[in-house]
Task: structure prediction
Amino acid sequence: MNASQLKLTYIGGPTALLEFGGLRLLTDPTFDAPGGEYTTGPVTLRKIMGPALGSDTIGLLDAVLLNHDHHFDNLDHAGRALLGNMERVFTTKEGALRLGRNVIGFAAWDSVDLQTHGGALRVTATPAQHGPADSDRGPVIGFILASVHIPEEGIYIAAIQFGSKAWQRSHAASRFTRLSYSWVRREFRRLVRII
Result:
């Protein structure tokens, strides 16, 4: 799989619609309107922008790739409501226990194959770190999307914050030799070449 085969629609925050081979995948759904406040421990987040598309306008989805469920900037109230309508949600093992229902928990390097038009897309969980190297903000995973026919090439999707980019990249590169792009979710969200 290479980036030219992927259609990416940026929705806002950590949320993007990924389309490949007839599959439609959504990353970390955040669809709350602006103005909400979310308090987690000593931190209060304030949402100042709404999504570019509403959850009611994105159409049918095959799965959600949920980096982690325990912070509202990756899964807000409207995003949680959307999960209840999903057939498949992939997230951490801990997140699956909290969310239940249709949620499949992944440990690092677990994978699942999703059928596409003419093949299959392998979704592989990668180790990830949320926050600086000397802190732990709870379990998170990244994802590599790759054709089952060329498993060493893929698209890397992860929440990268503070100093963790090199840590995540080295772990992903240890198993995938030709990662072409990384969807980086942070204050400056953009598609970034990682090699």
User: Anything to note?
Assistant: The first helix runs from residue 77 to 83. Confidence is low (pLDDT under 50) at residues 160-195. Residues 38 and 44 are 5 Å apart (CA to CA). The domain at 3-192 is CATH 3.60.15.10 (Metallo-beta-lactamase; Chain A).
